Inverse folding.
């Protein structure tokens, strides 16, 4: 059975942890220009819902924009109100996942064990993210793949351009890239440069 198609073309979720609403337009614009069409603004960022709204208003027709580190149903409702369509969690909370799916969001649920993975899928998550991936490594991806149905699986947490290929070879569809892509206050050109390195690493693997 084939893995379901992703709701975005480039399977690299760009994570802009710590970005502010004043910075969101420029950095998201640079990412979209580089071909990124999955954007995550974590909910522990300053005024995160405003940043999501800024990104949706400017680029919502070119990218799936949403929030990460979503922990509560109230966060889900705030995300929907901001126009977001993607929810990413660091953990497995079935009530939060169910609520997000009921509100029409695409959900990438954070898992660290097979039990959490199956709980997330039962709650309706369309995608899974192994987090923190750098702690578990590609061997964990292979182990999960041996028991999981063909659900999209992303490596998130400590993934670099040099390690990306290992996760893809082990069975991930893609990765979420955070601190290796963006740190608060960095110039837009650095975000663009990092984005290009990750995209090239993905393309080199796919070639």
């Amino acid at each position: 059975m084939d893995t379901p198609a992703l709701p975005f073309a480039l399977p690299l979720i760009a994570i802009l942890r710590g970005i502010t609403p004043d910075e969101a337009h420029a950095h998201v614009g640079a990412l979209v220009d580089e071909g990124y069409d999955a954007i995550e603004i974590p909910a522990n960022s300053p005024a995160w819902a405003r940043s999501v709204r800024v990104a949706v208003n400017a680029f919502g027709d070119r990218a799936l924009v949403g929030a990460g580190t979503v922990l509560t149903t109230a966060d889900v409702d705030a995300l929907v109100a901001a126009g977001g369509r993607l929810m990413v969690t660091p953990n497995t909370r079935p009530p939060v996942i169910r609520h997000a799916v009921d509100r029409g969001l695409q959900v990438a649920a954070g898992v660290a064990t097979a039990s959490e993975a199956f709980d997330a899928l039962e709650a309706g998550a369309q995608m899974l993210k192994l987090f923190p991936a750098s702690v578990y490594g590609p061997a964990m991806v292979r182990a999960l793949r041996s028991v999981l149905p063909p659900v999209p699986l992303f490596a998130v947490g400590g993934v670099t351009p040099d390690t990306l290929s290992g996760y893809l070879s082990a069975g991930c569809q893609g990765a979420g890239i955070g601190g290796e892509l963006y740190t608060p206050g960095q110039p837009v050109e650095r975000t663009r440069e990092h984005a290009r390195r990750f995209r090239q690493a993905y393309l080199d693997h796919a070639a």
In short: The chain has a mean pLDDT of 97.
